[in-house]
C-alpha cells in the first residue's frame, strides 16, 4: 500500500518487512522486523515516522520536521527533584542566616530565567510532562494515622535546616543517560556564592505492581 494514502500526497515508505502492529492506523504504513533493528521509515511532507522492535517491544519514533525526535512506547518516565531547607526559602525572602546567604533581586531574576529557559527546552523536546515548585517547609502539615486510629495532625513538622524536596520535574526521556544529562544541567542553576550544594535526585517511575 502506498504511504501517500495514509498521510496524504508526498509521503513515501522506505524498506522494512510487514508485521502486525498494536496501533491499527500504523498497520498499513510501517514494516518491522523482530531483530531489534529499525528497518522502516515513513516520510511525509510535515512528519516522519519510524519504528524498531526491541527488548521492550515496539518503539515508534516521530518528528515534526525541524524538531527533535520523540520516542513513543520505549521512553521511560522519571521524577527529578531539587532540594532546599526552610533556611533557603528564608534567604530568598530576605532573611539570611549562617551558611545561607541572602539572595539579591538580580540573583532571583537569574534563577527564574534559567529555570524558565530549561523548562521551555524540555517542553519543546516533548520530554517535560510537568514541573512544579513547593511552598516553604513551614507551610507543611503531617497527617499520621493507621486503620482504626484517629489521625494526628502536625503543623510545621520540619526543622529550620532540614533538607526537603523543593520542586520537581516529571520527565519522559529516552533513558537514564539522558535524564542524568538534564539533572547535570539543573545543577548549573545560578545561586548566591556560598550557598549549600544539594544533589539533584533522579527517581525512575516504575510500572504498576503485578498482583
Q: Would you spell out the secondary-structure blueprint of this structure?
A:
Elements: H1 4-7, E1 12-14, H2 24-27, E2 40-43, E3 47-54, E4 57-64, E5 70-72, E6 76-84, H3 86-92, H4 105-124, E7 128-133, E8 141-144, E9 152-155, E10 164-173, H5 176-186, E11 201-204
If you had to describe this structure to a student in words, what would you say it looks like?
This protein is an alpha+beta fold. The chain has two domains: 69 residues, no CATH class; 129 residues, Dimeric alpha+beta barrel (Alpha-Beta Plaits), CATH 3.30.70.1060. The protein is 22% helix and 30% strand. The strands form three sheets. The chain has a five-stranded antiparallel beta sheet, with no helix packed on it. Strands 7-10-6-11 form a four-stranded antiparallel beta sheet. The radius of gyration is 24 Å and the shape is flat. The two termini are 42 Å apart.
Anisotropy-based shape: flat
Low-pLDDT sequence parts: 1-73
The secondary-structure class comes to alpha+beta
- Terminal-residue CA separation: 42 Å
Compute the CA-based radius of gyration.
24 Å
Q: Structurally, how many domains make up the residues?
A: 2
Task: Please identify which CATH superfamily of the largest domain we are dealing with.
Answer: Dimeric alpha+beta barrel
Summarize model confidence as the mean pLDDT. Answer: 75
CATH architecture classification of the largest domain: 2-Layer Sandwich
Q: What level of helicity do the residues show?
A: 10-25%
Amino acid at each position: 500500500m502506498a504511504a501517500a494514502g495514509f498521510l496524504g500526497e508526498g509521503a513515501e515508505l522506505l524498506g522494512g518487512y510487514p508485521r502486525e502492529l498494536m496501533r491499527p492506523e500504523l498497520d498499513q504504513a510501517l514494516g518491522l522486523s523482530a531483530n531489534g533493528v529499525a528497518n522502516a521509515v515513513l516520510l511525509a511532507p510535515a512528519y516522519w515516522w519510524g519504528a524498531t522492535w526491541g527488548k521492550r517491544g515496539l518503539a515508534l519514533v516521530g518528528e515534526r520536521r525541524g524538531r527533535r525526535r520523540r520516542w513513543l512506547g520505549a521512553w521511560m518516565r522519571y521524577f527529578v527533584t531539587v532540594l532546599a531547607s526552610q533556611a533557603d526559602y528564608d534567604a530568598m525572602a530576605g532573611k539570611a542566616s549562617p551558611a545561607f546567604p541572602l539572595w539579591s533581586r538580580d540573583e532571583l531574576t537569574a534563577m527564574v530565567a534559567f529555570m524558565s529557559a530549561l523548562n521551555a527546552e524540555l517542553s519543546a523536546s516533548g520530554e517535560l510532562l510537568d514541573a512544579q515548585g513547593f511552598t516553604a517547609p513551614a507551610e507543611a502539615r503531617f497527617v499520621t494515622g493507621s486503620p482504626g486510629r484517629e489521625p494526628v495532625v502536625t503543623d510545621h513538622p520540619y526543622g529550620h535546616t532540614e533538607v526537603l524536596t523543593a520542586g520537581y520535574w516529571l520527565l519522559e526521556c529516552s533513558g537514564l543517560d539522558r535524564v542524568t544529562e538534564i539533572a547535570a544541567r539543573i545543577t548549573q542553576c545560578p545561586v548566591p556564592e556560598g550557598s549549600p550544594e544539594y544533589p539533584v535526585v533522579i527517581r525512575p517511575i516504575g510500572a504498576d505492581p503485578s498482583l
